[in-house]
Write a structure and sequence with these properties.
single chain, alpha+beta, NADH Oxidase, 4-stranded antiparallel sheet, 9 helices, 14% strand, binds flavin mononucleotide
Length: 214
């Protein structure tokens, strides 16, 4: 994999939120698509992959974001090269059968294994209360968000995860069914403006305050 930054320690441990990007930087759509393709290698519960990505990289898309973002996130919204609004897909299980059929057709699993997986997991989702579907897809979307932030660094970009927006308006802003798609977070991506990275260093609690061995 030809990453711009292939130093895992640096990618992982030197990530920090950037809120002031260089607005002149354009990320080619092919690269944005590639970053999402690398993002969706992330794990998900039962491999349901209950995530959906809306990638905004132009002013028309930013207008939609402006309609529901909180004011304090304006600098990132206006300066980033792309904003990826991540949703959880509460109806992802509807295509679950196709996924496993394809794996069977590709010779990745036997018909028996496919049937066993579908017998075991599909009813769990088909009968699940809405709140379970919301929680599960939010967890999947959150894992994808983390992976996207690291993948973006591997591509030489910085990010800011954003939850400061009107969650009741996010799906409808993009013509998505709000009953189906639950907003998880948005990820601003770009190159830092000069000094964009230095304005706020975040602190962490000492590890012994957040850990216990049981
Ligand atoms: C779910 C989530 C929502 C966040 N929402 C915002 C936001 O709306 N605006 C913002 O500037 N930063 C937001 N952040 C970034 C956090 O403030 C930041 O990750 C935290 O302070 C740690 O700093 P670091 O990312 O530089 O390590 C969010 C982070 C997460 C994980």
């Amino acid at each position: 994999m030809a990453f711009v930054n292939n130093d895992f320690g640096d990618v992982l441990l030197h990530r920090e939120s950037v809120r002031d990007f260089d607005p002149s930087v354009k990320i080619p759509r092919a690269e944005l698509q590639q970053m999402i393709a690398e993002t969706i290698t992330a794990p998900s519960a039962c491999n349901l992959q209950a995530w959906h990505f809306v990638v905004v990289d132009d002013d028309a898309g930013k207008d939609k974001l402006r309609s529901y973002f909180m004011k304090f996130n304006t600098p990132q919204l206006e300066s980033c090269s792309a904003m990826v609004q991540i949703f959880g897909d509460t109806l992802a299980f509807k295509s679950y059968r196709d996924l496993w059929n394809k794996a069977y057709e590709n010779g990745q699993i036997t018909a028996e294994k496919r049937d066993e997986v579908l017998r075991t997991f599909l009813p769990l989702y088909e009968k699940a209360p809405k709140q379970v579907l919301v929680n599960d897809s939010t967890v999947d979307g959150t894992i994808a968000a983390t992976q996207l932030m690291l993948i973006a660094r591997a591509h030489g970009y910085e990010t800011n995860p954003i939850g400061g927006y009107d969650t009741t308006k996010a799906a409808a802003a993009f013509g998505l069914d709000p009953d189906r798609y639950v907003p998880v977070m948005a990820i601003a991506i770009g190159k830092p403006a000069k000094n964009g990275q230095d304005e706020m260093k975040s602190a962490r609690y000492p590890v012994d305050q957040v850990i216990e061995f049981a």
